[in-house]
Amino acid sequence: MIRKRSLTLIEVCIAFGVLAVCFTVVFSNLSSSSKLLAKTEEARLISMRKQYFMERIVSIVEHLTPDSLQVEEKKVGSETFPVLTFVYENGLDRERIFSGQRRGELELKEGQIILSTFSKEGDEMREEVLFPGVSTVSFDLKTPSVLRIEITDLAKQTLPFAFVTVPKKEKPVVS
Question: If you ran DSSP here, which 8-state letter would residue 96 be given?
Fold first, then answer.
């Protein structure tokens, strides 16, 4: 009869050591992939914010009343913030008091770029968050027919935007 040899203590320790190295490699890869996934998700979110902001501003710029863009200074406490005011055609809105030609303001409030739309009488206002996570914003109208907006987010990344503000010409009516 052949007797089976059992494992020695050294062989068991070596097996546990190899197993520990394998687990270390697997868990470090999982940890780095989860960090990479979090960074990718953050980049996707920032990209979506930029795209929404650009789409919304383009829709406003396309419907601006000529020469209605103005940059004003708004004082809140001891700080002064730039406010972009304009008149634009809001079209049909789900709330009728905000339909048609309306006055709007674009400003930085509590770390967010806010679009404020005012009713015809000016007694009601609706606010829409266009870009959250902002530390500073600046508006530049020095170049004719170009609106420049520069945003610095909380990560100190500067995001420049430029929009052409020349109103579309009406198509001639052919009779």
Answer: G
Q: Who's near 30: CB < 8 A, 6+ residues apart?
A: none
Position 81 confidence tier, pLDDT thresholds 50, 70, 90? confident
Q: Encoding tokens for residue 164? A: 């052409």
Which own/partner pairs from 49-53 qualify as long-range (CB within 8 Å, at least 24 positions apart)? 49/131, 49/132, 49/133, 50/131, 50/159, 52/130, 52/131, 53/113, 53/130, 53/131, 53/161
* Contacts of range 122-125, beta carbons closer than 8 Å, 24 or more positions apart: 124/97
For the whole prediction, is pTM greater than 0.85? Answer: no
Q: 167 phi and psi, to 5 degrees?
A: -65, 145
The span from the CA of 25 to the CA of 54, in Å, is 43
